[in-house]
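Translate structure to sequence.
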């Protein structure tokens, strides 16, 4: 999710941009924003809640898999650790502070600031920091994905983990990140075949029907991956079963989602570089509407109102991913902070080599 310039091929992640991945990230973040906008309304509509359930099955797994795929080159090299701190840890501290202060101002509440208790959307930054920091471990062990799944299953039966740093989510979503680390470019080519695209249509139709059926029968908290089985009032053994079942459903729908993501450059492709901006900033608008009681208007609790909210959510998050917004908020999302770090000799050497190559190109 780091912003980088240029175009990409799938075979060179992190150095150039690839339209498929930028398209996938943009579409996933639009689904995230729509899901947050549906949350205050879904209680009055079984259809909307069924759709919400289906979207929550795959939108974050898709995002996390892509994050894992583009973390494959991460190691403990100083420049990469700096980017991890400035691009993930620092935004976490800033937004974890800003969200409660925002609530206090708008809602006249007395919300406390706590860096140990991720607020609303900031859990993902904690998770991404932990996952990426442990990447060398997953690249070292022989069976990384089974190990990650085992950790997720154990977390689902361990209520004593508590809420600090939202570690339940960190561990229960971990397999998707590790899967992304293990994936190769050809795996993404496989799900973009024509027959997969055709087969995904009935799969999504069945998922929507099942989501509608499951509304009164299933606790949607399972989709958030933030609680153990015992905390959800289920027997302990249900936790591992649900981890495997949810992962199976999530991967199936994620594959169907990837199958329909355009490969070519679209009007929204460039917005894929700003998805973290859209993710963190749209939360202020959703919460503002919630604090002000806008979601309580009766007109929004009817089909046309739900469609209006969906369109507004998609439009707003799209605008938040644009270049002008990124320029305004880059100080918080991608601060340089050169003053905070020691100069690394190897990095300076790489910069000198890069400048020399650029001069040679100019002279040639």
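Result:
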């Amino acid at each position: 999710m780091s912003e980088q310039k240029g175009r990409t091929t799938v075979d060179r992640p992190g150095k150039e941009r690839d339209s498929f991945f930028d398209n996938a990230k943009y579409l996933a973040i639009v689904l995230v924003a729509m899901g947050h906008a549906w949350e205050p309304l879904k209680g009055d509509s079984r259809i909307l809640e069924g759709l919400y359930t289906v979207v929550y099955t795959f939108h974050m797994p898709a995002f996390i898999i892509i994050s894992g795929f583009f973390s494959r080159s991460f190691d403990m090299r100083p420049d990469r650790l700096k980017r991890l701190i400035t691009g993930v840890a620092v935004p976490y501290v800033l937004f974890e502070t800003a969200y409660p202060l925002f609530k206090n101002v708008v809602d006249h509440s007395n919300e406390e600031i706590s860096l140990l208790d991720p607020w609303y959307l900031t859990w993902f930054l904690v998770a991404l920091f932990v996952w990426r920091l442990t990447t060398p471990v997953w690249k070292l062990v022989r069976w990384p994905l089974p190990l990650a799944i085992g950790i997720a299953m154990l977390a689902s039966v361990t209520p004593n983990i508590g809420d600090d740093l939202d570690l339940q989510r960190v561990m229960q979503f971990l397999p998707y990140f590790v899967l992304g680390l293990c994936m190769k470019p050809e795996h993404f080519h496989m799900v973009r075949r024509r027959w997969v695209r055709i087969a995904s249509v009935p799969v999504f139709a069945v998922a929507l029907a099942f989501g509608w059926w499951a509304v009164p029968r299933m606790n949607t908290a399972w989709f958030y991956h933030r609680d153990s089985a015992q905390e959800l009032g289920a027997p302990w053994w249900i936790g591992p079963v649900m981890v495997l079942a949810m992962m199976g459903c999530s991967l199936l729908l994620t594959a169907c989602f990837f199958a329909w993501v355009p490969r070519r450059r679209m009007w929204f492709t460039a917005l894929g570089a700003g998805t973290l901006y859209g993710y963190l900033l749209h939360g202020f608008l959703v919460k503002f509407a919630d604090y002000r009681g806008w979601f309580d208007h009766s007109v929004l609790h009817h089909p046309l109102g739900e469609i209006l909210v969906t369109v507004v959510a998609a439009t707003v998050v799209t605008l938040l991913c644009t270049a002008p917004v990124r320029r305004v908020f880059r100080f918080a999302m991608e601060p340089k902070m050169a003053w905070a770090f020691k100069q690394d000799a190897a990095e300076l050497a790489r910069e000198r080599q890069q400048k020399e190559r650029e001069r040679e190109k100019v002279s040639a």
